[in-house]
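User: Predict Cardiolipin synthase A's structure from this.
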Amino acid sequence: MEQFYQALALAGVLLYWLAVAAVTLRIVFKRRVVGVSLAWLMIIYIIPIGGVIAYLLFGELNLGKKRAERAREMFQPFGVWFRSLNDCPGHQPQAMSTRARPISELCENRLGIPALSGNTLSLQNSPKQILRSLVEDIHQAQETIQLEFYIWHPGGLADEVATALIMAAKRGVSVRLLLDSAGSMRFFRSYWPKLMRQAGIEVVEALAVSPFRMFLRRLDLRQHRKIIVIDNRIAYTGSMNLVDPEYFKTDAGVGQWIDVMVRVTGPAVAVLNGIQAWDWEVETGQRFLPPLPQCTPNLAKSDSDMIQVIPSGPGMPDEIIHQALLLSIYQARRSIVITTPYFIPSEHLHHALISASQRGISVHIVIPDKNDSIMVEWASRSFFTELLSAGVHIHRFHGGLLHTKSVVIDDSHCLIGTVNLDMRSLRLNFEVTLTIDNPAFTHQLGQLQQDYIQDSSYMKLREWEKRPVIQKLLEQFFYMFSPLL
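Assistant:
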Protein backbone atom coordinates (compact mmCIF):
# COMPACT_ATOMS: atom_id res chain seq x y z
CA MET A 1 0.00 0.00 0.00
CA GLU A 2 2.86 2.36 0.83
CA GLN A 3 4.34 1.78 -2.62
CA PHE A 4 0.94 2.59 -4.15
CA TYR A 5 0.81 5.97 -2.37
CA GLN A 6 4.38 6.70 -3.38
CA ALA A 7 3.53 5.93 -7.01
CA LEU A 8 0.40 8.07 -6.77
CA ALA A 9 2.39 10.97 -5.34
CA LEU A 10 5.03 10.60 -8.04
CA ALA A 11 2.35 10.52 -10.74
CA GLY A 12 0.76 13.66 -9.25
CA VAL A 13 4.08 15.52 -9.26
CA LEU A 14 4.79 14.36 -12.81
CA LEU A 15 1.37 15.48 -14.03
CA TYR A 16 1.80 18.86 -12.34
CA TRP A 17 5.17 19.51 -13.98
CA LEU A 18 3.84 18.31 -17.32
CA ALA A 19 1.02 20.85 -16.93
CA VAL A 20 3.53 23.59 -16.02
CA ALA A 21 5.69 22.67 -19.00
CA ALA A 22 2.69 22.67 -21.36
CA VAL A 23 1.51 26.09 -20.14
CA THR A 24 5.07 27.45 -20.31
CA LEU A 25 5.39 26.35 -23.94
CA ARG A 26 1.99 27.85 -24.75
CA ILE A 27 3.01 31.19 -23.19
CA VAL A 28 6.32 31.21 -25.08
CA PHE A 29 4.79 30.35 -28.46
CA LYS A 30 1.98 32.93 -28.08
CA ARG A 31 4.63 35.66 -28.67
CA ARG A 32 2.80 38.34 -26.72
CA VAL A 33 4.35 41.40 -25.10
CA VAL A 34 7.41 40.20 -23.17
CA GLY A 35 6.21 41.76 -19.90
CA VAL A 36 2.90 39.89 -20.11
CA SER A 37 4.63 36.58 -20.77
CA LEU A 38 7.11 37.07 -17.93
CA ALA A 39 4.35 38.03 -15.50
CA TRP A 40 2.43 34.85 -16.29
CA LEU A 41 5.55 32.69 -16.04
CA MET A 42 6.27 34.19 -12.63
CA ILE A 43 2.73 33.41 -11.46
CA ILE A 44 2.71 29.77 -12.59
CA TYR A 45 6.13 29.07 -11.04
CA ILE A 46 5.53 30.93 -7.75
CA ILE A 47 1.97 29.74 -7.08
CA PRO A 48 1.77 25.92 -7.23
CA ILE A 49 -1.25 24.56 -9.11
CA GLY A 50 -3.10 27.85 -8.63
CA GLY A 51 -0.87 29.57 -11.18
CA VAL A 52 -1.71 27.01 -13.87
CA ILE A 53 -5.43 27.25 -13.08
CA ALA A 54 -5.24 31.07 -13.16
CA TYR A 55 -3.65 30.96 -16.61
CA LEU A 56 -6.29 28.59 -17.94
CA LEU A 57 -8.99 30.96 -16.64
CA PHE A 58 -7.49 34.37 -17.43
CA GLY A 59 -4.34 33.89 -19.48
CA GLU A 60 -5.68 34.05 -23.02
CA LEU A 61 -8.13 36.19 -24.95
CA ASN A 62 -10.86 33.56 -25.18
CA LEU A 63 -14.21 35.04 -26.20
CA GLY A 64 -15.94 31.65 -26.19
CA LYS A 65 -16.59 29.33 -29.11
CA LYS A 66 -20.09 30.56 -30.00
CA ARG A 67 -19.21 34.27 -29.84
CA ALA A 68 -15.96 33.74 -31.74
CA GLU A 69 -17.80 31.91 -34.54
CA ARG A 70 -20.37 34.70 -34.75
CA ALA A 71 -17.64 37.32 -34.90
CA ARG A 72 -15.91 35.54 -37.79
CA GLU A 73 -19.19 35.32 -39.72
CA MET A 74 -19.85 39.03 -39.09
CA PHE A 75 -16.57 40.32 -40.53
CA GLN A 76 -17.76 40.38 -44.12
CA PRO A 77 -21.17 42.09 -43.78
CA PHE A 78 -19.98 44.58 -41.20
CA GLY A 79 -16.84 45.25 -43.24
CA VAL A 80 -19.00 46.11 -46.25
CA TRP A 81 -21.15 48.42 -44.10
CA PHE A 82 -18.16 50.27 -42.62
CA ARG A 83 -16.49 50.64 -46.04
CA SER A 84 -19.72 52.13 -47.38
CA LEU A 85 -19.08 55.10 -45.09
CA ASN A 86 -16.40 56.19 -47.57
CA ASP A 87 -19.25 57.22 -49.90
CA CYS A 88 -20.82 59.45 -47.24
CA PRO A 89 -20.44 63.17 -48.07
CA GLY A 90 -19.00 63.60 -44.60
CA HIS A 91 -15.93 61.63 -45.64
CA GLN A 92 -13.63 64.52 -46.54
CA PRO A 93 -10.01 63.24 -46.34
CA GLN A 94 -8.75 66.30 -48.23
CA ALA A 95 -10.04 68.51 -45.42
CA MET A 96 -8.17 66.67 -42.64
CA SER A 97 -5.42 68.39 -40.72
CA THR A 98 -1.93 66.95 -40.60
CA ARG A 99 -2.73 65.74 -37.04
CA ALA A 100 -5.86 63.82 -38.04
CA ARG A 101 -4.59 62.21 -41.23
CA PRO A 102 -2.20 59.57 -39.74
CA ILE A 103 -4.83 58.33 -37.28
CA SER A 104 -7.49 58.27 -40.00
CA GLU A 105 -5.22 56.28 -42.30
CA LEU A 106 -4.43 53.84 -39.50
CA CYS A 107 -8.12 53.26 -38.77
CA GLU A 108 -9.14 53.00 -42.41
CA ASN A 109 -6.39 50.46 -43.12
CA ARG A 110 -6.92 48.35 -39.99
CA LEU A 111 -10.62 48.85 -39.17
CA GLY A 112 -12.12 50.03 -42.44
CA ILE A 113 -13.74 52.94 -40.55
CA PRO A 114 -13.15 56.45 -41.98
CA ALA A 115 -13.19 59.75 -40.13
CA LEU A 116 -16.34 61.77 -40.82
CA SER A 117 -17.05 65.50 -40.68
CA GLY A 118 -20.31 67.39 -40.29
CA ASN A 119 -20.89 66.46 -36.64
CA THR A 120 -21.82 68.64 -33.70
CA LEU A 121 -20.48 67.89 -30.25
CA SER A 122 -21.57 68.89 -26.78
CA LEU A 123 -19.24 68.22 -23.84
CA GLN A 124 -21.25 67.40 -20.72
CA ASN A 125 -19.35 67.21 -17.43
CA SER A 126 -22.03 67.18 -14.73
CA PRO A 127 -23.84 63.94 -13.83
CA LYS A 128 -27.12 65.80 -13.46
CA GLN A 129 -26.61 67.52 -16.81
CA ILE A 130 -25.75 64.22 -18.51
CA LEU A 131 -28.64 62.21 -17.08
CA ARG A 132 -31.25 64.95 -17.51
CA SER A 133 -30.14 65.56 -21.10
CA LEU A 134 -30.43 61.82 -21.73
CA VAL A 135 -33.92 61.67 -20.20
CA GLU A 136 -35.03 64.59 -22.38
CA ASP A 137 -33.70 62.93 -25.54
CA ILE A 138 -35.39 59.64 -24.61
CA HIS A 139 -38.70 61.45 -24.21
CA GLN A 140 -38.26 62.82 -27.75
CA ALA A 141 -37.37 59.43 -29.29
CA GLN A 142 -39.60 58.29 -32.13
CA GLU A 143 -38.25 54.96 -33.40
CA THR A 144 -35.27 53.33 -31.67
CA ILE A 145 -33.13 53.59 -28.55
CA GLN A 146 -30.02 51.42 -28.09
CA LEU A 147 -27.93 51.51 -24.93
CA GLU A 148 -24.89 49.59 -23.78
CA PHE A 149 -22.97 50.09 -20.56
CA TYR A 150 -20.48 48.40 -18.32
CA ILE A 151 -22.32 49.46 -15.15
CA TRP A 152 -25.97 50.31 -14.55
CA HIS A 153 -26.44 50.99 -10.86
CA PRO A 154 -30.04 51.66 -9.68
CA GLY A 155 -30.81 54.76 -7.65
CA GLY A 156 -31.35 58.49 -8.06
CA LEU A 157 -31.39 59.90 -11.58
CA ALA A 158 -30.49 56.47 -13.02
CA ASP A 159 -34.01 55.39 -12.08
CA GLU A 160 -35.41 58.38 -13.99
CA VAL A 161 -33.59 57.11 -17.09
CA ALA A 162 -35.10 53.64 -16.54
CA THR A 163 -38.58 55.12 -16.18
CA ALA A 164 -38.11 57.19 -19.35
CA LEU A 165 -37.09 54.06 -21.27
CA ILE A 166 -40.18 52.18 -20.05
CA MET A 167 -42.40 55.08 -21.11
CA ALA A 168 -40.71 55.15 -24.53
CA ALA A 169 -41.22 51.41 -25.01
CA LYS A 170 -44.90 51.72 -24.09
CA ARG A 171 -45.45 54.35 -26.77
CA GLY A 172 -43.97 52.04 -29.40
CA VAL A 173 -40.26 52.92 -29.47
CA SER A 174 -37.97 49.90 -29.96
CA VAL A 175 -35.61 49.82 -26.95
CA ARG A 176 -32.60 47.50 -26.64
CA LEU A 177 -30.35 47.43 -23.58
CA LEU A 178 -27.00 45.57 -23.43
CA LEU A 179 -25.27 45.53 -20.03
CA ASP A 180 -22.13 43.81 -18.84
CA SER A 181 -23.00 40.97 -16.48
CA ALA A 182 -20.29 41.65 -13.89
CA GLY A 183 -20.42 45.45 -13.92
CA SER A 184 -24.23 45.60 -13.76
CA MET A 185 -24.75 42.83 -11.22
CA ARG A 186 -26.73 45.11 -8.89
CA PHE A 187 -29.04 46.06 -11.76
CA PHE A 188 -29.77 42.46 -12.73
CA ARG A 189 -30.58 41.64 -9.10
CA SER A 190 -33.03 44.56 -8.89
CA TYR A 191 -36.66 44.76 -10.03
CA TRP A 192 -35.80 46.91 -13.06
CA PRO A 193 -35.07 44.13 -15.60
CA LYS A 194 -38.50 42.57 -14.97
CA LEU A 195 -40.30 45.93 -15.29
CA MET A 196 -38.42 46.73 -18.48
CA ARG A 197 -39.11 43.38 -20.11
CA GLN A 198 -42.78 43.66 -19.21
CA ALA A 199 -42.83 47.00 -21.05
CA GLY A 200 -41.29 45.38 -24.15
CA ILE A 201 -37.65 46.42 -23.67
CA GLU A 202 -35.07 43.85 -24.77
CA VAL A 203 -32.60 43.51 -21.88
CA VAL A 204 -29.50 41.40 -22.55
CA GLU A 205 -26.80 40.38 -20.06
CA ALA A 206 -23.46 40.52 -21.88
CA LEU A 207 -20.65 38.08 -21.09
CA ALA A 208 -22.58 36.34 -18.32
CA VAL A 209 -20.51 35.40 -15.28
CA SER A 210 -20.99 31.76 -14.31
CA PRO A 211 -18.75 29.07 -12.75
CA PHE A 212 -20.01 26.70 -15.45
CA ARG A 213 -18.40 28.90 -18.13
CA MET A 214 -15.05 29.47 -16.46
CA PHE A 215 -13.09 27.10 -18.71
CA LEU A 216 -15.10 27.99 -21.84
CA ARG A 217 -14.47 31.75 -21.86
CA ARG A 218 -12.21 34.22 -20.11
CA LEU A 219 -14.29 35.47 -17.19
CA ASP A 220 -12.55 38.83 -16.71
CA LEU A 221 -13.16 39.85 -20.32
CA ARG A 222 -15.66 42.69 -19.98
CA GLN A 223 -17.95 44.83 -22.15
CA HIS A 224 -16.62 48.25 -21.09
CA ARG A 225 -18.16 50.44 -23.80
CA LYS A 226 -20.65 53.20 -22.96
CA ILE A 227 -22.82 54.05 -25.96
CA ILE A 228 -26.34 55.42 -26.34
CA VAL A 229 -27.94 55.91 -29.77
CA ILE A 230 -31.39 57.47 -30.21
CA ASP A 231 -33.19 57.28 -33.58
CA ASN A 232 -29.77 56.90 -35.29
CA ARG A 233 -29.65 60.69 -34.88
CA ILE A 234 -28.23 61.39 -31.42
CA ALA A 235 -25.46 59.49 -29.63
CA TYR A 236 -23.69 59.68 -26.30
CA THR A 237 -20.35 58.18 -25.36
CA GLY A 238 -17.66 58.87 -22.80
CA SER A 239 -16.49 57.71 -19.39
CA MET A 240 -19.72 57.75 -17.39
CA ASN A 241 -21.63 54.58 -16.57
CA LEU A 242 -25.40 54.68 -16.11
CA VAL A 243 -25.14 55.69 -12.45
CA ASP A 244 -26.02 58.61 -10.24
CA PRO A 245 -22.76 59.36 -8.33
CA GLU A 246 -24.76 60.29 -5.23
CA TYR A 247 -25.94 56.66 -5.01
CA PHE A 248 -22.92 54.80 -6.43
CA LYS A 249 -20.11 53.33 -4.26
CA THR A 250 -20.77 55.85 -1.54
CA ASP A 251 -18.92 53.74 1.04
CA ALA A 252 -15.72 53.31 -1.03
CA GLY A 253 -14.01 56.29 0.62
CA VAL A 254 -12.97 57.88 -2.69
CA GLY A 255 -15.68 60.53 -3.06
CA GLN A 256 -18.13 60.86 -5.93
CA TRP A 257 -17.07 59.74 -9.39
CA ILE A 258 -16.21 62.55 -11.81
CA ASP A 259 -17.09 61.86 -15.45
CA VAL A 260 -17.82 63.36 -18.85
CA MET A 261 -19.98 62.35 -21.78
CA VAL A 262 -20.04 63.69 -25.33
CA ARG A 263 -23.40 64.21 -27.02
CA VAL A 264 -22.98 63.75 -30.78
CA THR A 265 -25.19 64.48 -33.77
CA GLY A 266 -24.19 63.92 -37.38
CA PRO A 267 -22.73 61.01 -39.39
CA ALA A 268 -20.54 59.72 -36.54
CA VAL A 269 -23.76 58.64 -34.77
CA ALA A 270 -24.25 55.89 -37.36
CA VAL A 271 -20.71 54.64 -36.73
CA LEU A 272 -21.38 54.34 -32.99
CA ASN A 273 -24.66 52.63 -33.86
CA GLY A 274 -22.76 50.18 -36.06
CA ILE A 275 -20.38 49.31 -33.22
CA GLN A 276 -23.33 48.78 -30.92
CA ALA A 277 -24.97 46.55 -33.55
CA TRP A 278 -21.77 44.50 -33.64
CA ASP A 279 -21.84 43.99 -29.87
CA TRP A 280 -25.53 43.07 -29.91
CA GLU A 281 -25.03 40.46 -32.63
CA VAL A 282 -21.94 38.95 -30.96
CA GLU A 283 -24.02 38.43 -27.81
CA THR A 284 -27.42 37.49 -29.26
CA GLY A 285 -26.93 36.46 -32.90
CA GLN A 286 -29.50 39.09 -33.97
CA ARG A 287 -28.48 41.52 -36.72
CA PHE A 288 -29.59 45.17 -36.66
CA LEU A 289 -27.24 46.95 -39.06
CA PRO A 290 -28.23 50.64 -38.94
CA PRO A 291 -28.96 52.72 -42.04
CA LEU A 292 -26.01 54.61 -43.46
CA PRO A 293 -25.84 58.29 -42.49
CA GLN A 294 -27.51 60.85 -44.70
CA CYS A 295 -25.00 63.61 -44.15
CA THR A 296 -24.34 66.90 -45.85
CA PRO A 297 -21.05 68.34 -44.63
CA ASN A 298 -20.67 72.01 -43.86
CA LEU A 299 -17.02 72.49 -43.10
CA ALA A 300 -17.48 76.23 -42.73
CA LYS A 301 -19.47 75.76 -39.53
CA SER A 302 -17.50 76.47 -36.37
CA ASP A 303 -19.15 73.51 -34.65
CA SER A 304 -18.41 71.05 -37.45
CA ASP A 305 -16.02 68.35 -36.29
CA MET A 306 -13.91 65.64 -37.87
CA ILE A 307 -14.46 62.54 -35.72
CA GLN A 308 -12.71 59.20 -35.94
CA VAL A 309 -14.58 56.52 -34.00
CA ILE A 310 -12.21 53.76 -32.82
CA PRO A 311 -13.54 50.53 -31.29
CA SER A 312 -11.24 47.91 -29.77
CA GLY A 313 -11.55 44.52 -28.15
CA PRO A 314 -11.92 40.87 -29.15
CA GLY A 315 -12.75 40.59 -32.84
CA MET A 316 -11.19 44.00 -33.54
CA PRO A 317 -7.58 44.63 -34.69
CA ASP A 318 -5.14 44.24 -31.80
CA GLU A 319 -4.28 47.37 -29.79
CA ILE A 320 -5.80 49.79 -32.31
CA ILE A 321 -6.61 52.44 -29.66
CA HIS A 322 -3.15 51.95 -28.16
CA GLN A 323 -1.64 52.71 -31.58
CA ALA A 324 -3.80 55.80 -32.07
CA LEU A 325 -2.79 57.10 -28.64
CA LEU A 326 0.91 56.59 -29.35
CA LEU A 327 0.53 58.31 -32.74
CA SER A 328 -1.05 61.33 -31.06
CA ILE A 329 1.67 61.55 -28.41
CA TYR A 330 4.48 61.36 -30.95
CA GLN A 331 2.81 64.10 -33.01
CA ALA A 332 2.71 66.50 -30.05
CA ARG A 333 4.70 69.70 -30.42
CA ARG A 334 3.79 71.78 -27.36
CA SER A 335 1.69 70.00 -24.74
CA ILE A 336 0.06 66.75 -23.66
CA VAL A 337 -2.56 66.60 -20.90
CA ILE A 338 -3.97 63.23 -19.81
CA THR A 339 -6.71 62.42 -17.30
CA THR A 340 -7.28 58.81 -16.31
CA PRO A 341 -8.53 56.99 -13.20
CA TYR A 342 -6.20 54.01 -13.68
CA PHE A 343 -2.66 54.69 -14.85
CA ILE A 344 -0.62 51.56 -15.62
CA PRO A 345 0.95 52.40 -18.98
CA SER A 346 2.43 49.93 -21.41
CA GLU A 347 6.17 50.04 -21.88
CA HIS A 348 5.69 51.83 -25.22
CA LEU A 349 3.35 54.41 -23.70
CA HIS A 350 5.62 54.93 -20.70
CA HIS A 351 8.62 55.65 -22.93
CA ALA A 352 6.55 57.83 -25.27
CA LEU A 353 5.56 60.11 -22.38
CA ILE A 354 9.14 60.27 -21.08
CA SER A 355 10.47 61.00 -24.58
CA ALA A 356 7.88 63.73 -25.09
CA SER A 357 8.90 65.47 -21.87
CA GLN A 358 12.59 65.12 -22.67
CA ARG A 359 12.13 66.80 -26.04
CA GLY A 360 10.64 69.84 -24.32
CA ILE A 361 6.92 69.13 -24.48
CA SER A 362 4.84 70.00 -21.42
CA VAL A 363 3.37 66.67 -20.24
CA HIS A 364 0.70 66.61 -17.51
CA ILE A 365 -0.98 63.51 -16.07
CA VAL A 366 -4.00 63.94 -13.78
CA ILE A 367 -5.05 60.96 -11.65
CA PRO A 368 -7.29 60.55 -8.58
CA ASP A 369 -5.70 61.11 -5.19
CA LYS A 370 -7.69 58.12 -3.87
CA ASN A 371 -8.34 55.05 -5.99
CA ASP A 372 -10.91 52.29 -5.60
CA SER A 373 -8.36 49.61 -6.60
CA ILE A 374 -5.46 49.00 -4.21
CA MET A 375 -3.48 46.89 -6.70
CA VAL A 376 -3.83 49.52 -9.42
CA GLU A 377 -2.82 52.28 -7.00
CA TRP A 378 0.42 50.54 -5.98
CA ALA A 379 1.27 49.46 -9.53
CA SER A 380 0.61 53.00 -10.77
CA ARG A 381 3.03 54.47 -8.21
CA SER A 382 5.84 52.31 -9.55
CA PHE A 383 5.98 54.50 -12.71
CA PHE A 384 6.11 57.87 -10.95
CA THR A 385 9.86 58.17 -10.24
CA GLU A 386 10.94 57.79 -13.87
CA LEU A 387 8.21 60.10 -15.09
CA LEU A 388 8.94 62.81 -12.52
CA SER A 389 12.68 62.53 -13.20
CA ALA A 390 11.99 63.14 -16.89
CA GLY A 391 10.04 66.29 -16.09
CA VAL A 392 6.50 64.91 -16.45
CA HIS A 393 4.01 66.77 -14.23
CA ILE A 394 1.80 64.46 -12.14
CA HIS A 395 -1.28 65.89 -10.42
CA ARG A 396 -3.41 64.08 -7.82
CA PHE A 397 -7.05 65.17 -8.02
CA HIS A 398 -8.86 65.76 -4.70
CA GLY A 399 -12.43 66.38 -5.90
CA GLY A 400 -13.51 62.72 -6.01
CA LEU A 401 -12.59 59.70 -8.09
CA LEU A 402 -11.59 61.31 -11.37
CA HIS A 403 -13.00 58.84 -13.91
CA THR A 404 -12.69 61.02 -17.03
CA LYS A 405 -10.58 59.39 -19.74
CA SER A 406 -9.22 62.17 -21.96
CA VAL A 407 -6.08 63.20 -23.83
CA VAL A 408 -5.53 66.69 -25.23
CA ILE A 409 -2.64 67.29 -27.64
CA ASP A 410 -1.40 70.85 -28.30
CA ASP A 411 -4.87 72.20 -27.38
CA SER A 412 -5.98 71.32 -30.92
CA HIS A 413 -6.61 67.56 -31.07
CA CYS A 414 -8.10 65.22 -28.46
CA LEU A 415 -9.11 61.67 -27.60
CA ILE A 416 -12.06 60.97 -25.33
CA GLY A 417 -13.96 57.79 -24.55
CA THR A 418 -14.02 54.72 -22.32
CA VAL A 419 -10.34 53.74 -22.34
CA ASN A 420 -8.29 53.72 -19.15
CA LEU A 421 -4.51 53.90 -19.50
CA ASP A 422 -4.00 50.34 -18.30
CA MET A 423 -3.42 47.01 -19.98
CA ARG A 424 -6.98 45.81 -19.42
CA SER A 425 -8.43 48.67 -21.47
CA LEU A 426 -5.68 48.87 -24.08
CA ARG A 427 -5.42 45.15 -24.83
CA LEU A 428 -8.39 43.25 -23.45
CA ASN A 429 -11.83 44.81 -22.91
CA PHE A 430 -14.41 46.03 -25.42
CA GLU A 431 -13.73 49.79 -25.60
CA VAL A 432 -14.46 52.79 -27.78
CA THR A 433 -12.83 56.18 -28.11
CA LEU A 434 -13.29 59.26 -30.28
CA THR A 435 -10.37 61.15 -31.77
CA ILE A 436 -11.61 64.66 -32.48
CA ASP A 437 -9.89 67.14 -34.76
CA ASN A 438 -11.53 70.40 -33.80
CA PRO A 439 -9.72 73.18 -31.90
CA ALA A 440 -12.90 74.68 -30.37
CA PHE A 441 -14.10 71.44 -28.79
CA THR A 442 -10.55 70.47 -27.80
CA HIS A 443 -10.07 73.85 -26.12
CA GLN A 444 -13.27 73.29 -24.13
CA LEU A 445 -12.03 69.87 -22.99
CA GLY A 446 -8.63 71.40 -22.21
CA GLN A 447 -10.29 74.01 -19.98
CA LEU A 448 -12.06 71.23 -18.09
CA GLN A 449 -8.71 69.47 -17.62
CA GLN A 450 -7.26 72.69 -16.22
CA ASP A 451 -10.15 72.83 -13.75
CA TYR A 452 -9.18 69.33 -12.62
CA ILE A 453 -5.56 70.45 -12.22
CA GLN A 454 -6.66 73.43 -10.09
CA ASP A 455 -8.31 70.96 -7.71
CA SER A 456 -5.21 68.76 -7.53
CA SER A 457 -1.94 68.60 -5.62
CA TYR A 458 1.29 68.69 -7.60
CA MET A 459 3.78 65.90 -7.00
CA LYS A 460 7.40 66.91 -6.46
CA LEU A 461 10.26 64.51 -7.13
CA ARG A 462 12.21 65.37 -3.97
CA GLU A 463 9.22 64.77 -1.74
CA TRP A 464 8.25 61.61 -3.61
CA GLU A 465 11.72 60.11 -3.14
CA LYS A 466 11.38 60.47 0.65
CA ARG A 467 8.56 57.92 0.89
CA PRO A 468 9.20 54.90 3.19
CA VAL A 469 11.15 51.90 1.90
CA ILE A 470 8.17 49.60 2.54
CA GLN A 471 6.16 51.63 0.03
CA LYS A 472 8.91 51.29 -2.56
CA LEU A 473 8.95 47.52 -2.05
CA LEU A 474 5.17 47.31 -2.46
CA GLU A 475 5.33 49.41 -5.62
CA GLN A 476 7.95 47.13 -7.16
CA PHE A 477 6.03 44.02 -6.14
CA PHE A 478 2.84 45.19 -7.86
CA TYR A 479 4.88 46.51 -10.80
CA MET A 480 5.70 42.91 -11.64
CA PHE A 481 1.99 42.28 -12.22
CA SER A 482 1.31 45.56 -14.04
CA PRO A 483 1.16 43.94 -17.53
CA LEU A 484 -1.86 41.94 -16.32
CA LEU A 485 -3.79 44.72 -14.52
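The first strand starts at residue 116 and ends at 124.
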